[in-house]
Amino acid sequence: MAESKAELVQMTTNGFEPKIVAFFCNWCTYLAADLAGTSRVKYAPNIRVIRTMCSGRVDPQFVLDAFARGADGVLIGGCHPGDCHYQEGNYKTLRRVRMLRRVLHDMGIEDARFRLEWISASEAERLKAVVNDMVEKVRALGPLQLKVKPEHLPEEVAA
Ligand code: FES
Question: pTM for the full model?
């Protein structure tokens, strides 16, 4: 549920600003972030971008490591279905994300903390909307408090 602006300001003044690790595909979402920069499209500064050559390069273990090392959220940005430079990389991502989401759910990590979005190179405004929306939702959830630090993935997800 979206929080009101006043509530969000209150949370911000309470000091919590979420840290979100963003894995962006080199060919699309990373370029959208670049375009946002050159076009002065501003979005929340809470994301730390890691460039990958394809969303399919994002090993599920990377996501668990990010959460284990203090990320409050993880965002994966990839090319739209049919546009992946490596043919099927993003379909692989989609399959992995579905399995990983179940694992994260079992670990008590809320759905809003983990997101996969297709954002092309020309979609700077969409990038802004996605990032701002995710930051708002994670901010409303508060800091991630893992009871158990993830170390290794179950085999069905790691494959
Ligand atoms: S090259 Fe962008 S998702 Fe595969």
Answer: 0.86
- CA–centroid distance, 120 to ligand 1, in Å, is 10
pLDDT at 2: 47
Please state the separation of Cα 35 from the chain's center in Å. 19
Domain ranges of the chain: 17-141
- Across the range 87-92, mean pLDDT stands at 96
Q: Which of 54, 50, 115 is nearest to 79 (CA)?
A: 54
27 lines ligand 1 (CB under 6 A): yes
First-residue to last-residue Cα distance in the chain: 34
Distance 107 CA to ligand 1 centre (A): 28
Instruction: Judge if the beta carbon of residue 78 lies within 6 A of ligand 1.
Output: yes
17-141 in CATH: which number?
3.40.50.960
- Return the amino acid letter for 85: H
If you measure from the C-alpha of residue 136 to the centroid of ligand 1, how many angstroms do you get, rounded to a whole number? 26
Using the mean position of ligand 1's atoms as its centre, give its distance from the Cα of residue 114 in Å.
Answer: 18
- Closest ligand 1 atom, residue 89 Cα: 4
> 99-116 burial, b if ≥16 CB within 10 A, otherwise e?
bbbebbeeeebeeebbbb
Residue 41 predicted with pLDDT over 80: yes
